[in-house]
Design brief:
alpha/beta, pyruvate-formate lyase- activating enzyme, Arc Repressor Mutant, subunit A, 2 domains, nine-stranded mixed sheet, three-stranded antiparallel sheet
């Protein structure tokens, strides 16, 4: 059964130096035409694969809140008209601090959005400028306070560590500022230098002063310790929440469940098939105008690929992979299928097999990619 829907809004008022998501500058773009195409894609998809009540809807980008009030209202109306959400379902919008007016917040809240995810990244204004962000720390406090005043209580904050010129003390100060907001959820990611980004170009020129691997590991260790001491439990490698506020949408991915993906460059996983849409706006919208889905790639997973994905996605969760659930889902015992891989990883003290789960050790959290790679047996 399909559990969730992701909706991609590719428009941004500025481009961050580290971002490799599918995005375009907002100015001069056919935003209204895109929203109309998005609604048509949803309808075409549901004709092919009808939706039951979803557990979560997530609107990401790009910058969804870069849209004006009327565009946001139209987008939300399209979503509510076509995508049924469970009574207590999670409905998230990504947002940039500083671009959320009270009018926009009210449009979202009155449209049923019940969770906001702010791309904060840092509370150091100089560092924010260095990574291409246009907001300042004071904008974060103002935006979160405004959201809470309107009625939003489930608010997540994204942070990045391992940034150019960042120190352990600076990251600690960012964490301290973050905790003062008393939000329900945090995501903390290490910086990854992706091709086709400004940071990638600077790195190739030797002009990107990144922290050492040891410093980055120390920041991750600090992140985990500080989150625990402030009552946020770690439920995934990079995610922390108050009890009951875990991201249902992200858990859909890590549980390897099915989900819709709508919009330019969006990905979906439905009935064992992974799809990706065209990214450029014209390539995305042209098929839709001809009443065709904008599918660029489609991959039907083999049984072995499904097993592998169940392992390396599930191992991102702190709880790990349930052995019984794996057996129920695939009719195979992962302890038998991956016997040699599991023994080697246990010997390296990277995973544990206890209480019916296969999970990462504390050491394994720092070396997750090595663990995930071990289960790619193709």
């Amino acid at each position: 059964m399909i559990q969730a829907a992701y909706i991609h809004i590719p428009f941004c008022e500025h481009i961050c130096h580290y971002c490799d998501f599918n995005k375009v500058y907002l100015k001069g773009q056919p935003v209204d035409d895109y929203i109309a195409a998005l609604e048509e894609e949803i309808k075409l998809t549901l004709e092919e694969t009808p939706a039951k009540a979803l557990n979560s809807i997530f609107v990401g980008g790009g910058t969804p809140t870069a849209l004006n009030e009327k565009q946001l209202e139209r987008l939300c109306r399209s979503i509510s008209d076509h995508l049924p959400l469970q009574d207590e379902g999670e409905y998230t919008f990504e947002a940039n601090p500083g671009d959320l007016t009270e009018d926009k917040l009210r449009v979202l809240f009155e449209s049923g959005v019940n969770r906001l995810s702010f791309g904060v990244q840092s509370f150091n204004d100089e560092l924010l400028k260095r990574i291409g962000r246009t907001h300042k720390a004071e904008d974060v406090f103002r935006s979160v306070e405004a959201a809470q005043k309107v009625g939003f209580h489930n608010i997540s904050i994204d942070l990045i560590y391992g940034l150019p010129g960042q120190t352990l003390e600076d990251f600690n100060q960012t964490l301290e500022a973050s905790f003062s907001l008393e939000t329900t959820h945090f995501s903390g990611y290490s910086l990854i230098i992706e091709p086709k980004t400004i940071f990638y170009q600077l790195q190739n020129k030797g002009k990107l002063p990144l922290p050492t691997e040891d410093d980055e590991a120390a920041m991750y260790d600090l992140l985990m310790n500080r989150m625990e001491s402030h009552g946020y439990h770690q439920y995934e490698i990079s995610n922390f929440s108050k009890k009951g506020y875990e991201s249902r949408h992200n858990l859909t991915y890590w549980d390897n469940d099915y989900y819709y993906g709508f919009g330019a460059g969006a990905h979906s996983y439905i009935n064992g098939v992974r799809r990706s849409n065209y990214g450029p706006l014209k390539k995305y919208m042209t098929p839709i105008h001809n009443h065709e889905l904008p599918i660029m790639d489609e991959m039907i997973l083999s049984e072995k690929e499904k097993w592998e994905e169940e392992m390396f996605l599930g191992l991102r969760k702190i709880q790990g992979v349930s052995i019984n659930h794996f057996i129920e889902k695939f009719g195979k015992n992962p302890l038998v299928m991956f016997e040699s891989e599991i023994k080697q990883l246990e010997k390296k003290q990277l995973i544990n097999v206890t209480d019916g789960f296969i999970s990462l050790t504390k050491k394994g959290l720092f070396l997750g990619n090595e663990v995930f790679q071990a289960f790619l047996i193709s």
